[in-house]
Design brief:
single chain, 175 residues, alpha+beta, 5 strands, 23% helix, Dopa 4,5-dioxygenase, DOPA_dioxygen
């Protein structure tokens, strides 16, 4: 996809003054101009992320079901997440591949930017030998194919922790 198909990230800032070239105290980063208020993205997910029932992000935590050590660790992690993050939606602990996922996994839904920040930073420390796919859930625009949107969410918009695993994207159909 070419860059011209994306809206400009500077929309709304067209008439802003030039950014300063001044370096911050660390000598490497730049001094940023002050903002009138914090970005809305601190409080709620940016559209078209799902702010409703599905949640803005899904996290799929993978383990090799034939590996006893990984299976044990994954099950313990699943239990820990349920205890420490009860406000998140935590799904079944699968002992086999399901859907487009090539190995066993469990899924967690995230509903707010605060939950995302807390859980993803926690997971970076606690995921151990496991891989995790973090993908957004975009609400399809009018006339947009929901399967095509879900396919992009799981591929082009995906964030990975650990080893990237190949998904069977054919399950999302053609668009």
């Amino acid at each position: 996809m070419s860059a011209s198909t994306y809206p400009s990230p500077l929309a709304g800032y067209e008439n802003a003054p030039p950014l300063p070239d001044e370096k911050a105290e660390d000598g490497k980063s730049y001094v940023n101009p002050p903002a009138d208020q914090l970005s809305e993205a601190y409080e709620k997910f940016t559209p078209p992320l799902d702010r409703g029932r599905q949640g803005g992000f899904d996290v799929h935590i993978y383990y090799f079901q034939s590996n006893a050590e990984q299976s044990k660790y994954a099950y313990e992690l699943w239990q820990r997440i349920r205890r420490e993050f009860p406000e998140l939606r935590i799904y079944k602990f699968w002992d086999r591949p399901i859907g487009p996922h090539p190995v066993a996994m469990f899924e967690v839904n995230i509903f707010t930017p605060a939950q995302f920040g807390a859980f993803i930073s926690w997971l970076a420390i606690w995921r151990g030998p496991l891989s995790a796919l973090i993908h957004p859930n975009l609400v399809p625009k009018e006339g947009e194919n929901p399967s095509a949107v879900a396919k992009k969410d799981h591929s082009e918009r995906a964030i990975w922790m650990g080893e990237r695993l190949p998904l069977d994207l054919s399950l999302f159909g053609q668009h």
